[in-house]
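Lecture notes, unit on protein representations.

Consider one protein chain, 129 amino acids long.
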Amino acid sequence: MRVKLNDGWRNVLAELAHKNRKQMTFFLSSKKEYVVYGLSWHPDSEIYPRPVTLCEVVDDEGNLVSVPIDVFEIVDSNISSTWQVERNANSVLMWPREFLEKFFFDDLSEGKSGALAAFEHVRDLIGRD
């Protein structure tokens, strides 16, 4: 699956901003396509005031980030064969098995070698889909 920012993405983010929180900032570029590494649907969120579907993409600074699908236009709707569907509390996750490992996202953001290697493996597999 590949996406790119839609023309009104900044307005969409402003509308999604929770009243008590600062608007989210993402390091993404217009006209650039992004590979989607997973999708998740959340009925409740501390960040967004309504149910939200998030895309896991690598931003322009090389970080894996969760971005509301509302800001994107879908360029290629084929999903990865590596994705598994899991339920976590009230959320529905469509992620590669590696993302479902306990503390995966924390370990990845901290640069832990196991998580970095797992994510490179996921990138390689999804790149071949």
